[in-house]
Amino acid sequence: LMKRVQSALHDLPPEPTIVVAHAGSIRAALSLLCGFDYRQSWAIDIPYAARLKLMLYADSPLKGSLQELRT
Q1: Which pLDDT tens digits describe the chain residue by residue (71 residues)?
Q2: Pick from 1, 3, 5: nearest CA to 29
Q3: b vs e for 33-63, b when ≥16 Cβ sit within 10 Å of the residue's Cβ?
Q4: pTM, entire model
Q5: Are 30 and 66 within 8 A, CB to CB?
Q6: Euclidean distance between CA atoms 31 and 40, whole angstroms
Q7: Which of 2, 25, 29, 39 is 20–30 Å from 61 (CA)?
Q8: Taken in order 59, 65, 67, 71, is the CA torsion positive or negative?
Q9: First vs last C-alpha separation in the chain
Q10: Residue 27 class from Cβ within 10 Å (0-12 exposed, 13-18 middle, 19+ buried)?
Q11: How many other β-carbons are positioned within 10 Å of the β-carbon of residue 30?
């Protein structure tokens, strides 16, 4: 899963993009982008139909931050 999510993150265009995903792949993306250990990403409650806003940094495609979490 981590490898698939990493590949998908590399393929994202440089403009704002909507991605629909399940909680497991969202946790994988948080782990990759924010530097969380995959186990640490389970500390974030991601309920059904949650909306996250992630910022990917232009200087590194696998660095970013969680900007917003709405439930």
Answers
A1: 999 999 999 898 888 999 999 999 999 999 999 998 878 989 989 999 999 999 988 877 689 999 999 98
A2: 5
A3: beebeeeebeebebeeeeebebebeeeebee
A4: 0.85
A5: yes
A6: 8
A7: 39
A8: positive
A9: 24
A10: buried
A11: 22
